[in-house]
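S2.1 Query sequence (UBX domain-containing protein)
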Amino acid sequence: MLDEFTDSDMAGDVDSRKSTSGSKHIDVRYHWIRNVLDSKLLQLEKVEGPKSPEEMLTIFQRVLEKSAHVLVAARLDAEERRTNVRLREEQDAAYRVALEADQARERQRKEEQERLAREAAEAERKQKEEEEARERAAHEAAEKEAALARMREEKALSLAAEPERFWCGSQLESARERGSKSLYDYVDLLGCLEVESYSLVSNFPRVVHGPEKLSMSLKEAGLHPQASLLVEFNS
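Output structure tokens follow.
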């Protein structure tokens, strides 16, 4: 860009007057023509003395022609700088995209690792719970079996010595005068049943020998001198 300027403090001033012949002149003292390109200041021409507009145009034209290569070089340099700036911006944008993609992959990898770790911990917890449940079940079964064995032993010791034949061919001993509870004790001692709740029932006529008759003797319950009883599971 060409620029003309005056500095009243250092380079004098510019005065526009008409000559005696009526033509207009520009009185230029220490007048400069400058080239300003991207903050670079170059002196292209120094003009002094009165000049007509035509002379000034001629000077400007000459300066332009003489400085054409400078202007072209400056324009090319500016274009190159703009191109470099654009390339850097494009490279920065591509770098940001690649960085975001890498960060996304890293987040996904960490999330996958955390998910696998949670699943492994959950599987380990479930396995431990199952093992503990099996151990508890085995312990409870052993305790139940031991309690059943103690109960049978106690009932066997409490029963009197009189043979009674049961449906499975076993012979146990009873006492006529004992209550019908002794019949339940005999059934428990057989170990043939895998249920905890059952009732002894006579068929003809149907009579359930439940808890209300446990204190009766066999004779009072109508089971002496003989009777057939069925085992009925309670739901």
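The radius of gyration is 61 Å. The longest strand covers residues 24-37.
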